[in-house]
Amino acid sequence: MTPQVTQLGKTFAARVTGIDLRQVPDAATHAWIEQQLARWGVLSFGPQRIDDSQQEAVIELFGPPFATNFGEIATGHPHFYDITTVDESGAPIVADSPRGLTLLANAQWHTDGSQLQPPTRVSILHARVLPPTPPPTEYANMCAAWDALPPAMQREAEQLSVVHSIAWSREQIGFRDISPESLKLRPPVVHPLVRTNPITGRKSLYLASHASHPVGWPVKEGRAYIHALVAHATQPEFVYSHAWCADELVMWDDRWTMHRATPYDGVQPRKLRWCGAVELEPV
Ligand SMILES: [Fe+2]
After folding, report:
1. What is the number of helices (H) and of strands (E) in the chain?
2. How far away, in angstroms, is 146 Cα from ligand 1 center?
3. What distance in Å separates the CA atoms of residue 62 and residue 86, rounded to the nearest whole number?
4. pLDDT tens profile 62-117
5. How far is the CA of 112 from the centre of ligand 1 (A)?
6. Can you list the positions of beta strands (E) in the chain?
């Protein structure tokens, strides 16, 4: 079956049909997915009855798997992280625990892995358990946000590098108890504020909840600047809200999209299994 792509959002996001991820995509299919990812940013592959090894095989096409076996995100698997109502033993995730607060942090607009260097390049979520009415996941088109900036702001932004810090993103939700060991593994890193997609040549804002302030700026002033840019980039015209279906696999390009979880009360079980591939080079 020939893969087909259908637009989902106003400016980005698409549904892919005709690819069965139980088999590892061959080189031509992988190249096709890369092109679609560069064009659409967010791709739903619809229901995919895949297991862990098949999910891992897909992400490995895009780069080295993101290591999840450290700090408060450790789940016992080296490459998976679960957006889940219960932990590996079946016990409910306590909201006011490091893991619960990490889940809460997903409600901030963010880009996976920007707190690291190199950062995450591609992310995958696979719906393993969904409640009857799953909360959507929202995505922001950071190319469109860049395009809409006034030229003077573009010129300024292109000159800037930004400090990204896990301590800052967690502080914003009142989580100030990250262990010293965990912080040592994730010291602040610096990324350019503007990135150019190597496939499309399009520029985009590279922002995240981890983004604190431009290098060389006073911290308070810099945080206000980043806050204003995030507010600009997440206006409704740049946002796509994705409604989940059973067994669905969604892949997105962390180079030019941000995303966030929407509120969920956790009463009905839910588990989305995440994995990511990191950039080969620092950005
Ligand atoms: Fe995320």
Report:
1. 8, 15
2. 21
3. 29
4. 999 999 877 666 777 899 999 999 888 888 888 888 788 888 899 999 999 999 99
5. 5
6. 4-7, 14-17, 42-47, 81-84, 120-129, 137-141, 161-164, 189-192, 194-196, 203-205, 211-214, 239-242, 248-253, 257-261, 271-278
Q: Kindly state the percentage of the chain with pLDDT values over 70.
A: 99
Inside any domain, residue 283 = no
The pTM of the full predicted model, rounded to 2 decimals, is 0.96
CA of 111 to the centre of ligand 1 (A): 6
Question: 251 vs 93, 106, 202, CA distance in Å?
Answer: 25, 16, 20
Ligand 1 geometric centre to CA of 260 (Å): 6
Task: Indicate whether 17 belongs to any domain.
Answer: yes
For residue 231, which of 207, 214, 251, 198 has the smallest C-alpha distance?
Answer: 207
The boundaries of the domain holding residue 146 are 4-278
Is 257 inside a domain boundary?
yes
Contact at 8 Å (CB) between 196 and 283?
no
Contact 189, 117 (CB under 8 A): yes
CA distance 68 to 133: 28
Q: How far is the CA of 1 from the centre of ligand 1 (A)?
A: 31
Is the residue at 196 inside a domain? yes
Centre of ligand 1 to C-alpha 247, Å, is 18
Task: Give, as one character, the DSSP assignment of residue 110.
Answer: B
Domain count, the chain: 1
111 Cα distance to chain centroid: 4
The domain that holds 73 is classified in CATH as: 3.60.130.10
